[in-house]
Structure formats: C-alpha cells, structure tokens
Amino acid sequence: MPYVWIGFAVFVALLLFLDLFVLNKHDHVPRTREALGQTALWMAIGLGFSGFIYLAYTKGWVNSTLPPHTAMINYLTGYLVELSLSMDNVFVIAVIFAYFQVPAKYQHRVLFWGILGAVVFRLAMILAGVYLLEQFDWMFYVFGVLLLYSAYKMVGKGEEVHPSENPIIKFVKKLVPVTNDYHGHDFWVRENGVRAATPLFVALIMVETTDIIFAVDSIPAILGITTDSFLVFSSNILAVLGLRALYFVLSSMIDKFGYLKYSLGLILTFVGVKLMLHEVWHPEEWVSLAVIFTVLAAGIVVSLMRKVPAEHVEDPTEITAPSRVPEDHQL
Fold it and tell me: ∠219-220-226 over CA atoms, to 5°?
C-alpha cells in the first residue's frame, strides 16, 4: 500500500531531523560514550521496527502474501546483513577522511548528507533489483556470482584507495573550482567572487560514491533473503541510518576486528550460493538468520580474542594529506 511507503518516508525524515538538529545540533567530536549511546539507539529503532513489520503484514497494510512471522524474520535477517556489511564500509570511510584530513568535528556532517543521498540511490537500486529478479530468472545467478566475487575480494588483499583517482572526483574538478582550504563546515564558499566547492564537498562526493559501490554488494545480499521491496528497503535504510554513530564507535578500534572480513566473506558466500540454488534449495527463513548471526558473532569474538598479525592490519592513517591540499593532489 502506498500509505505504508509514505509513512515510512515520513518516519525516516523525522529520524534524520532528530539526528541533525537534536542529537548533533552543534559540530563536535562525539565521545565514545555518546557514540555508543547513539549506536544503541539506532539499533533499538532498527530492531524494534520488526514489531511494526509484524503488525503491518498482519493487518494487510503491505501488498504481500508473506505471513507476518516470515516477513519479520526476513526483515531482521536483511537488517543484520546490511549492518554487518556496514562495518566494512567504516574502514573505507576512515581512509577517505584520513586522505582529505577532514576535521573530526565535521565528519558527522559529511556522513549525514552522504547517507541522505544514499537513501534516494538505494531506493532506485532496490526497485530495479526487485524488478529484474521478477522478470528475469537468470538474474538470480548474476547476483549470486556478483556476491561470490565480492566475497573473494573481501578476504583477499584490498586495493589501495586513491580518492584523487576517482573518476567522479575528476569530473567534479572539471565542472567547478575547488578551494585548497577548509572553510568551517561549509561545502560551498565564494572565493575571489567565484562560487567554489571546498574539500569537504569533495569528501562528501567520495563518501556518496563509495556507498553506492557498497550497495552493489549489500542490496543483492538482501535480495537473496527476500524480494519483498518494502522489507528490502526498510531493513537497508534503517541499518544505514545507524552508520554514522557506528563509524565513531568502530573507526578508532578498526584494527581490533581484523578477522571480521572473513565473517563478512562467508556471509556473502552463503547468500550468493542461496541465490544460485534458489530453484532446488529452500531453507527456512530462520536458518538464514541463524547462520548470518552465528558467523558474524564468531568473527567478532575471534577478532577480540586473537591478536591480528601486523601484516594483516590495514591502517587508514597511512593515506594522509595535509588540510591544505598539496599541488600533486590539488583538487
């Protein structure tokens, strides 16, 4: 029903208003306790929304034939998948912020507007993905292979991130002038009578494009759980909304979760195989939820119990640039 979609859009808008104008009204660096509190709040909202899912599918507010308990389990599974994949996204965002030397107190502003744009892009990608799976059965195998390849890349040595080589960044530089210095939390300023973007805006574009790239992995992963567009979109977006708070919790201790990438690789492999065997293998919904939760928890526990060898720890601070961009990386 369109009313459910409209209501969810209003709900998300209220959450974004709460985040920007209440919880983070002033530019500041969130303390660990504050970041943990906000992360717990976003997770409570995300998990608590499963109650609304059960009610909505019981009352028939959503045009779906799924039983309420199945819809709720599929939502929770999709939410957990997206939340776990977001942890890997945190490292890449940390690299981007380190490269551009984004002041810590402005990082939340970049994440907020970046994720706001991601909501729109992900809706389009989800609707397109659901349509393709409904119209073309062979797309299940395409998405399955894509997830298996993503799993292979995740457990292998990642490619070094060079934001200045991003084609979209090069395109932005051709379109508009970019200042060498930051100007507070502004994305745009007027310099010598010319309207110019700041490095903060360039970092925003980089975060935005990175999220779209990660969506290529995460959205097919959730589509491997369910093709119900409302479940896919709501679980995806509510997990993404908590990414900002999660970033400030994990970015300072990302080296402690060196084995987590193996869990994420196994999760992508499991969902990819499930997609490719969709005609012959139909496990109960709770099986997917149990497998993903167990694998994720195992990765976290092993990471905390075992010290990761130094050569396996990627340090986001290795890619740095001064706040005034040098000539060889001039934006």
Answer: 90
| 258 vs 248: CA distance, rounded Å | 17
Report whether pLDDT(317) > 50: no
DSSP-based three-state secondary structure for 189: strand
d(CA 14, CA 185): 23
pTM, 2 dp = 0.74
Q: Which residue has the tokens 């390849």?
A: 149
The 3 state secondary structure assigned to 247-271 is HHHHHHHHHHHCCHHHHHHHHHHHH
User: Are 199 and 178 spatial neighbours (Cβ–Cβ below 8 Å)?
Assistant: yes
The first and second tokens of residue 126, run together, are: 């989800």
Q: Tell me the one-letter amino acid at 108.
A: H
Q: Which amino acid is at 154?
A: M
Least confident of 143-152, 225-234, 242-251: 242-251
Q: Which helix (H) or strand (E) covers residue 153, if one does? A: helix 139-155
Q: Which residue has tokens 């929304």? A: 49
pLDDT band for position 254 (cuts 50, 70, 90): low
Q: What is the largest distance, in Å, between two alpha-carbon atoms of the chain?
A: 66
10 Å Cβ neighbour count for 232? 26
Question: Smallest Cα–Cα separation from 269: which of 239, 302, 291?
Answer: 291
Instruction: Name, in order, each residue with C-beta under 8 angstroms of 257's C-beta and a sequence gap of 6 or more.
Output: 87, 250, 299, 300, 303, 304
